[in-house]
Structures are given as C-alpha cells and as structure tokens.
Write a structure and sequence with these properties.
Layout: H1 15-25, H2 27-50, H3 63-76, H4 86-91, H5 110-122, H6 127-153, H7 156-167, H8 170-174, H9 182-218, H10 231-246, H11 250-271, H12 277-303, H13 306-310, H14 334-351, E1 374-380, E2 383-388, H15 393-413, H16 416-433, H17 449-464, H18 471-500, H19 506-510
Antiparallel strand pairs: 1-2
C-alpha cells in the first residue's frame, strides 16, 4: 500500500481554511457557528451602545430639539413650543413645561415617535430613556449588516467581518447613544436594502424558471413574464417609506433603489433570453415594480403623520382652513391640504438653511474626514469628558479607499454585488453635494457606514484571494486581514472613551486630535 507524499507548506491549505473546512464538515457545528457569530457580534454591539447610556446627563448637541419635541409629541400628538430656558427646566425635572401651541419642526414624526416611546417607558427625566430607542436601532443595525452581508455572499465569515466592523465603529456608536434621528434613519434604509436583496434573489429565480419553461414549450420570445407576486419588494417599500418618515433623505434612497430594481430586472431578462429585454423591463415590469414599491412607501409616510392629522394644535394644522384649494385640488381633504402647506414650509427651510456653525462640514469634505462633529465637551478637575462623532479613522479611510476599489472592480467585472453596495453609497452621498451652501455635518454619514463596511469587507476578501488561489497566497492574505482587524479593534478601544464621555486626562484627549481641524 502506498501513501501520498506529505504536502509541502506552500501546498497546504491556509490555517483559517482548514478551520473553516472542519466546521463545514460538521452540520451541527456549522449551524451553531451560523447562530453564534451574529449573536456574539450583536451582543458586543449592544454592550458598547447601552453601557452607561445615560451619561452624560446633559442635553447634547441637537438633542435640545429632539428630546423636547419627541416628548411633547408623545403627550399631545404634535411637537409643542417650549418656554425660554426649557433645557434647564427639562434637566431639572419639569418635563411638562411645554405649551399647547404647535412648534415648527422640520423633520417628519416617525423618529420622534420612537424616541418618545423610550421616554415614556423609562420616564421623560431619564437621560437613558431619551437615548434608549436610538441604542436599540443602532444595535439592530449591526445585526442587519450581518444579514445583508450574508444575503450578498452566503458567507458567515464575510458577514461577521462586516458586522463586526460596524459594531466597533465610533460614528455608529455615538449616533446610537445620542437622541438624534440619523441612527434610526440608517436602520430603515438598511432594512429596505436587505428586503430588496431578498426580492432580487426570489425574483431572478422565478424569472429564470418561467423563462426556462417557456423556452422548452415554444422557444424564447420577445417579451418576458410580468410578475406581481413580489412581497419582499412591498416590504422594501414600507421600510423605505419609514426611512423617509424619519428624515426626507430617505426619499433619495427610495428613488435610487427603485432604479436599481428596474436595471436588475432588465439584466435578468437579458440572461433569460428575452428578446426586447430593455423595453420589457422598463415598460412592462417597471410600472408593476413602481406600483409595488412606491405607493406603500407613500402610505407608510402618510401614516406617520396620523397624530398630527387627528389633533388640532400642530403647526399649520389649520393654515388653509379659511382659504382651501379651489378647482382641481378642491377634492383633497382639508387636513391633507394643510399638511401639504406644512411640507412646503419644511422644504423652504431645508433649501435655505445657511446658518453658520463651527462644526459644519460640506459634503465634499466628508471623504477626507476634515471636520467631525464635537457633540459634547466638558473639562473639570478630574479631567475631560468628550463625545466626538468621529468614526474609527482607519475604518473610515479604508472605506473610502474601498469605494474607489469597488468602482474599478465593477467597471472590470460588472459584479452585481458591487453595484448594489455602490448604489446605496451614491444614494446617501451624492444628493448632499447638490447643496454646498447648506449647513450640514459630517455625522450625517452614519447612514453610509453600513455600506462602507461592506465595501471594506469586499476589499479584504480580495486581499485574501479566491478559493482557487494558492494556499500560500491565501495564508498571506488571511494574515494581512487579521492584522488589519486587530489594529482597527485597538484603535476603537483607544477612541471609545472619547466616543462615550468617559472622564480622561486632558493630554489623553489631545492625543485623539490627529488633525488640527478635529478640535
């Protein structure tokens, strides 16, 4: 009996590959691994976000708007005006000092509803209660990144790396610990993206099966089937409608993803052998996709205004009662006419917002991380407490580089996974470039972070190499990726105190100002 010669070191599978093969060979262990990885990462994300959530017990940055507006909306059904010195009154326990007249608020109600629910659960005077909802959504977003990455690649390792990077990213941590709307927006945008990926998988499988049956029956035709049964597309519309009901920037994402749905369908029809596939996708399946995606988004958005519509004291609630629309628009119920008037006021505010702010940062600066936002800073005898919404710098700059990499790779390979991630990034970034004069901030990019960590993870996978790469090549790539992940984790540990307001020496805080514009 002869035995095979031992493998040379360069022929042996990379260490991580051997470990993964052992897990894959045991179905029970593989199932445990598939559950344990997301559970562990989500637990870590939750600990980083919920630990000492009520600190600082201060109204931080724009919490001055969202805390008070959320609570008055929860009580009255609409945001109310507050007297002068309301922040001090609120911090002192006088949480009912609001008036009964409506206040002009420039964002839809849904995000404030969730913040108000947390305050109702733990008490409006609880600083942890102010932030409970955003911490829940921030933690859930980490789990969502895992599910999105797993859907994109079917790889537990890929999904674990992507979600792990978001779990320890500073911008994501800070916007999960401060009662602002952007973390809630991020969750619903990513939820809609995940639903679209699920719809794509199911839609393409059904389209291919129908096309194959049709070809076997009577040959390939000029037109393909029109499919109405797309529940995941309806779910995506609901999620993106909820995103828009948190902040209007969700509308850009809805439009971009709607285009992506049509383009994806067109390419699937071409692969299925449909003769006139561009027109088939645009003029036959496209309108159906629109009807499944957009009306449900509009209904969810409108439903978020229910409490304003059924109450009497909201801002501009009766603005047009004495001068209702005439002619064609006279059929629109008067409350909806008033709501439209309110939306006109909101739009005029947003396009005209040019109030200077020391931490404002136009969108063209965002890739360079020029001016992150200082949310809170206090110096006392014991040291400095700071909350800076800066991302982990290595994750951020690696993400920017990875986006460029994905653009190049997509141009060379036309890989749909790259196109999906790039669509999310462009939808969340490019619209802000259209308003260079507006007062905007770097922390708006929290909605970009899930897509940036996906881009980074795709780049890391390329560094490792494909399954057919030489074992030595994969071993070297795996070692490089592990070093990168260890360094990124250490950087997050270094930054965590100034993401969460932990008291540190002044000189330690100064060590985090790598660029002079970060102060």
């Amino acid at each position: 009996m002869t035995t095979a010669p031992p493998l040379l070191p360069r022929q042996r599978p990379a260490p991580f590959d051997r470990w993964r093969e052992r897990i894959a060979a045991d179905p029970r262990r593989n199932r445990l691994y598939a559950w344990a990885v997301p559970a562990a990462i989500t637990l870590i994300a939750g600990l980083l976000r919920f630990w000492n959530l009520g600190h600082p017990r201060a109204i931080v940055f724009d919490e001055t708007y969202y805390i008070k507006d959320s609570w008055s909306q929860w009580v009255l059904g609409f945001p109310a005006q507050w007297p002068e010195g309301a922040d001090e009154l609120f911090l002192g326990g006088d949480t009912g000092a609001f008036e009964t007249s409506g206040s002009f608020v420039v964002h839809p109600p849904l995000g404030r509803f969730f913040i108000g629910a947390g305050m109702a659960l733990f008490g409006p005077d609880s600083s942890a209660g102010w932030r409970f909802a955003v911490a829940v959504f921030g933690t859930a977003t980490v789990l969502l990144v895992y599910l999105v990455a797993r859907t994109l690649t079917r790889s537990i390792v890929f999904a674990g790396v992507a979600s792990g990077l978001l779990a320890i990213d500073g911008l994501s941590i800070v916007l999960s610990r401060i009662a602002l709307l952007d973390g809630i927006l991020t969750f619903f945008v990513l939820l809609g993206f995940w639903f679209l990926l699920l719809d794509r998988r199911r839609h393409i499988e059904r389209l291919a099966a129908l096309a194959a049956a049709r070809t076997a029956d009577r040959g390939t035709g000029a037109w393909g089937p029109v499919l109405w049964n797309r529940p995941w597309l309806i779910a995506a519309g609901a999620a993106l409608g909820a995103a828009t009901a948190v902040k209007w920037s969700g509308l850009y994402v809805l439009a971009a993803f709607g285009i992506w749905v049509v383009v994806t369908d067109a390419l699937a029809r071409r692969r299925a052998g449909v003769g006139i596939w561009p027109a088939d996708a645009a003029f036959r399946q496209g309108p159906v996709a629109f009807l499944l995606l957009v009306p449900i988004a509009a209904l969810v958005y409108l439903a978020s205004w229910t409490s304003w519509l059924v109450s009497d004291g909201g801002w501009e609630r009766h603005a047009l009662d004495d001068t209702p629309a005439q002619g064609f628009w006279s059929w629109v119920p008067l409350p909806l006419q008033n709501l439209w008037k309110y939306h006109q006021s909101i739009y005029n505010f947003h396009v005209g917002l040019t109030t200077p702010h020391s931490y404002q940062s136009p969108a063209w600066q965002w890739p360079f991380l020029t001016r992150p936002t200082s949310m809170y800073w206090h110096q006392g005898d014991a040291g400095v407490e700071a909350v800076s919404s800066i991302p982990n710098p290595l994750i951020w700059w690696a993400g920017v580089a990875a986006v460029v990499f994905l653009l190049v790779r997509f141009a060379l390979t036309l890989q749909w996974r790259y196109a999906a991630v790039l669509t999310g990034i462009l939808a969340l970034y490019v619209p802000w470039l259209l308003y260079p004069e507006r007062t905007i901030f770097q922390f708006y990019t929290v909605a970009l972070m899930p897509f940036l960590v996906l881009a980074v993870t795709f780049a890391l996978r390329e560094i490792v190499g494909g399954a057919d790469a030489a074992p030595a090549r994969r071993a070297a790539g795996q070692s490089s990726v592990i070093v990168f992940l260890v360094v990124v984790t250490l950087v997050s540990a270094f930054w965590y105190p100034v993401w969460t307001g932990i008291t540190v020496p002044y000189d330690f805080w100064r060590l985090h100002n790598w660029l002079p514009t970060w102060i």
